[in-house]
């Protein structure tokens, strides 16, 4: 129910957070029940588990870009689709880095914050891709697209 109400608010381009700051992603996502992390100094003001993902949109005050995200320890990488994200995961697993390398369907939400007078980004996580065969299929798509 909460997810449907939130998605409907994103579809009309207005985030209502109960204050004078209607487009404040930091306030809206920072108090979301699925919040994983919030920060004032990172790339994302919040990282939130949220199913279903909001629909993609690029008009109005709030833009939503659908794609994929990879958890790299205390940082997140966002990609425009699952295929390059799977390539990143495969390469990361072969590196000397030891973060989780978890792969998610995701949306990046962008809006101007009237409270902080700056652009803000929130990362909204959908389904986690666990299946190795599915990750391999996405990786194969990525490899084929770069070979062409």
Mean pLDDT: 77
Query: Strands of the largest sheet, in order across it?
Result: 1-2-6-5-3-4
Relative helix content: 25-40%
Principal-axes geometry comes out as: globular
> What percentage of the residues does DSSP assign to strands (E)?
25-35%
Topology, pairings included?
Elements: H1 2-11, H2 25-30, E1 35-38, E2 46-49, E3 62-72, E4 75-79, H3 82-93, E5 102-113, E6 118-129, H4 132-147
Parallel strand pairs: 2-6
Antiparallel strand pairs: 1-2, 3-4, 3-5, 5-6
Q: Overview of this structure, please?
A:
It is a single chain. This protein is of the alpha+beta class and 148 residues long. The protein has one domain. Helix content is 30%, strand content 32%. It is built from four helices and six strands. It has helices at 2-11, 25-30, 82-93, 132-147; strands at residues 35-38, 46-49, 62-72, 75-79, 102-113, 118-129. The protein has a six-stranded mixed sheet with strand order 1-2-6-5-3-4. Helix 3 (82-93) crosses helix 4 (132-147). The N and C termini lie far apart (44 Å).
Summarize the structure.
The protein has 4 helices and 6 strands; from the N terminus they run ααββββαββα. It has 148 residues and is an alpha+beta fold.
